Amino acid sequence: MAPESQRSFLLRHLDLPATLVDADAGAALVRRARREAAELLATEGYFSPQIDARADAAEALAIVVAPGPLTRVARIDIEFLGDLAAAEGEMAERRERLRAAWSLKAGAAFRSADWQAAKAALLADAAATDHAAARIVSSRADVDPERAEVQLAVTLDSGPAYRFGALAITGLRRYDAALVAGLAPFAPGEPYRRAALLEFQSRLQNSPWFGAVTIEAVPTAAAETIPVRVTLAEAPAQRVGFGLGYGTNSGARGEFNYRHHDFLGRAWDLNSGLRLEERRQSLSAELGLLADARGYRPSFGAQLETSDIQGLVSTRQVLGVARSRNAGRIETRLGLEWQREELRTAGAAAERKRALTLDWRWIRRAADDALNPRRGNVVELRLGGAAQRLLSDRDFVRSHLRVQQWWPLGAADSLMLRGEAGYTAAVARSGIPQDYLFRAGGAQSVRGYAYQSLGVRAGNAVVGGRALLAGALEYTHWLDGPWGAAFFVDAGDAADSWREIKPAAGVGAGARWKSPVGPLALDLARGTRGGRWHLHFALMVAF
User: Fold this and answer.
1) Which residues contact 317 (CB under 8 A, 6 or more apart)?
2) Residues 459, 464, 466, 471: is their CA dihedral positive or negative?
3) End-to-end Cα spacing for the chain
4) CATH class of the 72-157 domain in this structure
5) From CA 159, how far away is CA 138, in angstroms rounded?
6) Which of 48, 68, 144, 440 is the most exposed place for a label (fewest CB within 10 A)?
7) Distance CA 506, CA 454 (A)
């Protein structure tokens, strides 16, 4: 018997038999139970508990616990040795930042797990910049059980300030070492930064040239430079892929992809593909060149696409050049694209459009898991436009914002909120390609409605409008194993102006399966506009 929080804690961690064999065994077990219960309670900050353990008449072990007062931190002293102990200047500021970041503050409950975590965080913060060999040389917790207080003291020896040494690269056969060195976000002689090593590893792993990457940077007492050892396994230079799939947005699909990661022997990345869907077909090719010293990668691309969606038949040809960069959580892209489009609707003459657009895209991905997120968010902002004087049929400026946020609920469940808004500023939508207008409906948009069925009605077809508002709220409950159930409400619409938007709502539920490439969703939703039911099947990954 004990207060509920301590009772559940002791039940989880005390490993004692429920019944006794004989009196002698019972006496030994009672002593063991008192000792182990006191040790466990001390890890939670209870250093003066009253514990009564005894064997009752039924030969069962009974433990009665009064935990006593919770011990709290009275004072924390953090001292430094080594280069970080310099009297003035930058080192003094860093010492104060490290002390301010200490997580186990005065007045906090003293738990062993929190004490160890605070020391680990202090060491990690100190070693992140310059002081790669930092170590904690002493730590002490002086407990006063009578006053339920603890005095903490930690001494950290930073060692010397280190700098990056030369790169030592092994495993290259096809590529030049300069390719690897060009991806490093640091140069020999620069101050050591752990974040730079992690960024270097991320760049190598995300590149198409290497299948396995290992980076080691071990400081030594003999020198104040750290050589960076890079061990690589090159990926195949050419890859051919085939795929079959189905989604309720575009129907059945088949695709063929060919990639050459060492095109013309220059480590250029050629990516080409043919995609055949029931409602859309496309042929594309993109050539990515090497990134510059700041990580910006130029590319050139072309695409031919035809589609027949909601009565609108379109054919478009695209040529483009872009510069993109992935830096941690942030992805940016600036592109110049020329597009020619031909639209046909039933009973109407073909309409031809052309535009030379400058388009900027910014994405921040801050989710805990890219494939199965439960916490965090993804934000995307796009701005672009064209001028009639520059090979375009219409002056326009397009803006589009999308936000997706997750919150964990309980041990495994999650709540997701998605919202998007877009607007294309122009005198009229005529002359603007569909890529720079908006439609809504379907999976990953407004469920309960057919794919891109929410927009501007033009005869028997639905075409893009200049304004968009859409959102979704979804609760997912995960069962045992990879299966889950989701309940959601969506709403949104696209129109030619904000005043004309009349959000259409959809409500429904669906099944989720955690596949290796992200959650597969099978949803059944009813749209309030028209009252029809729609089945949606899609891969529900963060955009």
Assistant:
1) 302, 303, 304, 339, 340
2) positive
3) 51
4) alpha beta
5) 14
6) 144
7) 12
| Architecture of the 361-539 domain | Beta Barrel (2.40)
Q: 279 near 289, Cβ under 8 Å?
A: no
pLDDT at 53: 64
Alpha-carbon distance of 13 to 117, in angstroms, equals: 20
Q: Measure the CA–CA gap between 282 and 317, rounded to whole angstroms.
A: 10
> Using CA atoms, how far apart are residues 161 and 20, in angstroms rounded to an integer?
61
DSSP label at residue 143: E
| Alpha helices, H only, 14-111 | 23-43, 90-101
Q: Where exactly are the structural domains of the chain?
A: 4-66, 72-157, 163-234, 361-539
Looking only at the bridges linking them, the beta strands covering 238-247 and 251-263 are antiparallel
Structure tokens at 38: 């006191």
CA angle (231 as vertex; 229, 237 as ends), nearest 5: 140
What are the Cα distances from residue 117, in Å, to 103, 113, 282, 440? 8, 6, 53, 47
Q: 151, 158, 152, 154: which is closest to 135 by C-alpha?
A: 158
DSSP states along 275-311: EEESSEEEEEEEEE----TTS-EEEEEEEEEEEEETT
Q: At 1, which amino acid appears?
A: M
The two structure tokens encoding residue 149: 């207080």
Q: 273, 205, 213, 271: which is closest to 238 by C-alpha?
A: 271
Is residue 354 a contact partner of residue 340, using CB atoms and an 8 Å limit? yes
Q: Do domains 72-157 and 361-539 have the same CATH topology?
A: no
> Could you tell me the two tokens for 1?
């018997």
CB 324 within 8 A of CB 337: no
Phi-psi region of 389 (alpha: psi -120 to 50; beta: other; left: phi over 0): alpha
> pLDDT by residue (tens digit) across 174-221?
999 999 998 898 999 999 999 999 989 988 998 899 999 999 998 887
The residues pairing with 383 across neighbouring beta strands, listed in sequence order, are 360, 399
> Taking the CB of residue 412, how many other CB atoms lie within 10 A of it?
13
* pLDDT 10s digits, 462-500: 999 999 999 999 999 998 889 999 999 999 999 999 999
Amino acid at 439: R
Q: Quote the CA–CA distance of 354 and 394 in Å, as a whole number.
A: 9
